[in-house]
């Protein structure tokens, strides 16, 4: 979803990060400690920790300290910590180990934070161009096997995010139990529900949801609440007021009404449909978030698990590093060493992705949804919900032309309610 970039109210105090790191890592007082900025993401700032022994010998510790802006207070940090713990305990997927954390900004730093182990290796993106196709196929299969573990070992009875049971001990909080008594499925954490900041102040149904019909309805209703708010006079006094989106709000609401009719057909909530499981889905499995050994290229870790939750099967798509323009009829000319022509690079990479997708499919089955037209349209419906604030006109066209054409030529949705493995 497109949204304004979150603003940091202030830079994190490095001296406090040093103090927290020293205490939780039990670094002796006679050793100096240094915190160095490493990287910044959409909602986080990441720092590395290093020490010197007093004799001038410096060493970088295998830990990182990540500070989070409060885009979804408590829930984002608490769910990520629980998710990483659950994955470590129930799979062999290599993820960072949490040392300490605060899921509230009510602390000396004034931000939510996580201190975790730093996984060795380099990003797959940094070495990808230098790998031959056979090696890329091998590593694609390796990542797919890890994803298969998530689907097989991390499936639950509701759509939502993982939490430690003790973190959601409030009796008023709706949760769904898991087979591990330490964990529950609780409120969903997704950028769609907090990007831009306004939705945090508006009525939202964060779940957990028993099916994708309620899940999609909650997302659409949150967008509708936001559009109605933007048309109120008091919205103009808010720091996150977007005059361009506000001007388009009537058209966006009209497009939402059109999507509503389609939603009831694509995401039926029907008593005849048996309950099913929802698996953990890493929402940004990109080359940047996969770490490998720089020599052997063996996967050493997968990072950036914020907003990861249990999601419907139709949301299990190809990872971003395999998404291209589809199958190419002819093999393009291989790139010459140092060839950076954008058109030739894009053409070659699209062909390469089409060659790699079978390796993914071999481990997980086909995830392009070509064999299930209903699931394919569910993916498109969700994509057009994201596009509402960009081009409501294109969303309306999809409903009135593309969807209408598909629905008139496809099997009735009533049949799909009972015989699709992904129905809800």
Show the helix and strand layout.
Layout: H1 14-25, E1 32-40, E2 44-52, E3 58-68, H2 75-90, E4 98-102, E5 112-117, E6 122-123, H3 124-128, H4 133-153, E7 155-156, E8 161-164, E9 176-177, E10 183-186, H5 191-194, H6 212-230, H7 243-266, E11 278-281, E12 290-292, E13 299-302, E14 309-311, H8 342-364, H9 373-386, H10 392-409, H11 413-419
Antiparallel strand pairs: 1-2, 2-3, 3-5, 4-5, 6-12, 7-11, 8-10, 9-10, 11-14, 12-13
Helix pairs in contact: 4-8, 6-7, 7-9, 7-10
Structural shape: globular
User: Helix share of residues?
Assistant: 25-40%
The total strand number stands at 14
Q: Tell me the span between the first and last alpha carbons.
A: 24 Å
CATH third-level topology of the domain at 14-119: Phosphorylase Kinase, domain 1
Q: What is the name of the CATH class of the domain at 14-119?
A: Alpha Beta
- Helix tally equals 11
Mean pLDDT level: 87
CATH architecture of the domain at 14-119: 2-Layer Sandwich
**Regions with little confidence, pLDDT below 50 for 5+ residues:** 412-424
| Computed structural class | alpha+beta
How would you briefly describe this protein structure?
With 424 residues, the chain is an alpha+beta fold. It has eleven helices and 14 strands.
What does this protein look like?
- With about 425 residues, this protein is an alpha+beta fold.
- It has a domain of about 110 residues: Phosphorylase Kinase, domain 1.
- It is about 40% helix and about 15% strand.
- The protein is built from eleven helices and 14 strands.
- It has a five-stranded antiparallel beta sheet, with helices on both faces. A three-stranded antiparallel beta sheet has the order 6-12-13. A three-stranded antiparallel beta sheet has the order 7-11-14.
- A hairpin with a 5-residue loop joins strand 2 and strand 3.
- Helix 6 packs antiparallel against helix 7, helix 7 packs antiparallel against helix 9 and helix 7 runs parallel beside helix 10.
- The protein is globular.
- The protein starts with 13 loop residues before the first helix and ends in a 5-residue tail after the last helix.
- The C terminus is likely disordered.
